[in-house]
């Protein structure tokens, strides 16, 4: 896969400290169709932290090479073009497919990783945007059904019927973040911020000074930030129609597809932010809850307390709804102080 080069400034590595004592290293890279940035804090030689940054980049690019839906050398591309024949998978790809399918099942198909034919039909992978007609949409709906994707994690194989395609875009960055956090834990690094493209962030531990990481939450209707979430050892995943979209005929169409219609989800929500200990769970649930809408999404949260996640819902009208676990960690920015926030129960 061809690596896109970032400007020199974006790739610059920042090191503070030398020899011993506190050190901070930062770096950015382009992967999974987004700019990622990592900040690591630790004690001792900054060079050791710099080496760890290099290892994180290798993990990310390795996952991308195996799991991209557009790279002809990837395992997912092979699965999508195998015409119903079994395809061999790496342990990581098989594991992620199995975990993603479990999320599809738990959410009743609101998350469906086989919705990729619809994403393609609307032109999002290539940027050649178009609006499919009703007959085409009906046909696309018939190509979306996660229950027909079979994964044998023990054998490391998967089978997808001909004409169907899978895509791990809704969960891959979260899964990658979880793997990176595990890597840092193994190396004894307990303070880091892993930004895998703004929509997926993992806060490892807390800042060196003992304060939580502060993560801005974008206003789906504008360029500013609604508020700030303070996180310690938590992941955050955000889905919103403002992230990737195009306009045609006075309408805005975004990349988050409703599997039931093969069209952009129109649920009354402008953005959903999920917080939990798992990046994968945050990514997958933020997409699913966006598709569900506020009422169904709130009920899902009430019915699945065992998943241990919290949510910030933002409606098309700009209303904010917050689950109780975020009440003490979320604060509005000055510009939005007059915005009401409803704490759910």
What does this structure look like?
- This protein has 345 residues and is α+β, with helices and mostly antiparallel strands.
- Helix content is 29%, strand content 29%.
- The chain has helices at residues 8-11, 46-67, 75-80, 91-106, 116-121, 134-141, 172-186, 279-292, 294-303; strands at residues 14-18, 20-31, 34-43, 87-88, 150-152, 157-159, 191-195, 200-205, 213-218, 225-231, 234-240, 245-248, 251-254, 257-258, 263-264, 269-276, 310-315, 320-322, 330-332, 341-343.
- α7 runs antiparallel to α8 and α8 (279-292) packs across α9 (294-303).
- The radius of gyration is 20 Å and the shape is globular.
- It starts with 7 loop residues before the first helix and ends with a strand.
Quickly describe the structure.
The chain has 345 residues and is α+β, with helices and mostly antiparallel strands. The chain contains nine helices and 20 strands. The chain is globular and about 60 Å long.
Q: What are its keywords?
A:
ten-stranded mixed beta sheet, three-stranded antiparallel beta sheet, alpha+beta, 345 residues, 29% strand
What is this structure's SSE topology?
Elements: H1 8-11, E1 14-18, E2 20-31, E3 34-43, H2 46-67, H3 75-80, E4 87-88, H4 91-106, H5 116-121, H6 134-141, E5 150-152, E6 157-159, H7 172-186, E7 191-195, E8 200-205, E9 213-218, E10 225-231, E11 234-240, E12 245-248, E13 251-254, E14 257-258, E15 263-264, E16 269-276, H8 279-292, H9 294-303, E17 310-315, E18 320-322, E19 330-332, E20 341-343
Parallel strand pairs: 18-20
Antiparallel strand pairs: 1-2, 2-3, 3-7, 4-6, 5-6, 7-8, 8-11, 9-10, 10-19, 11-16, 12-13, 14-15, 16-17, 17-18
């Amino acid at each position: 896969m061809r690596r896109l080069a970032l400007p020199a400034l974006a790739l610059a590595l920042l090191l503070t400290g030398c020899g011993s004592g506190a050190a901070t290293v930062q770096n950015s890279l382009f992967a999974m169709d987004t700019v990622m940035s990592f900040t690591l804090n630790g004690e001792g030689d900054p060079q050791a932290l710099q080496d760890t940054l290099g290892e994180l980049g290798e993990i990310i690019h390795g996952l991308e090479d195996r799991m991209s839906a557009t790279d002809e050398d990837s395992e997912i591309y092979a699965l999508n073009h195998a015409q119903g024949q079994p395809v061999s998978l790496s342990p990581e790809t098989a594991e992620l497919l199995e975990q993603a399918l479990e999320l599809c099942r738990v959410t009743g198909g609101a998350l469906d990783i086989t919705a990729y034919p619809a994403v393609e039909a609307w032109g999002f992978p290539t940027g050649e945007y178009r609006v499919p007609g009703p007959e085409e949409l009906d046909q696309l709906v018939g190509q979306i059904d996660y229950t027909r994707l079979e994964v044998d994690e023990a054998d490391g194989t998967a089978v997808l019927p001909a004409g169907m395609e899978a895509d791990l875009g809704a969960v891959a960055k979260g899964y990658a973040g979880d793997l990176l956090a595990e890597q840092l834990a193994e190396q004894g690094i307990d303070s880091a911020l892993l930004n895998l493209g703004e929509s997926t962030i993992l806060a490892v531990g807390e800042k060196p000074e003992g304060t939580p990481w502060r993560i801005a939450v974008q206003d789906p209707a504008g360029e500013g930030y609604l508020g700030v979430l303070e996180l310690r050892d938590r992941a955050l995943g955000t889905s919103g129609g403002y992230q990737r979209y195009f306009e045609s005929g006075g309408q805005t169409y975004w990349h988050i597809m409703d599997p039931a219609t093969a069209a952009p989800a129109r649920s009354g929500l402008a953005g959903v932010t999920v917080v939990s200990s798992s990046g994968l769970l945050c990514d997958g649930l933020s997409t699913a809850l966006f598709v569900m809408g506020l009422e169904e999404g709130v009920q899902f949260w009430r019915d699945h307390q065992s998943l241990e996640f919290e949510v910030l819902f933002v409606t098309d009208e700009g209303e904010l709804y917050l689950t109780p676990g975020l009440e003490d960690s979320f604060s509005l920015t000055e510009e939005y102080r007059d915005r009401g926030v409803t704490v759910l129960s």
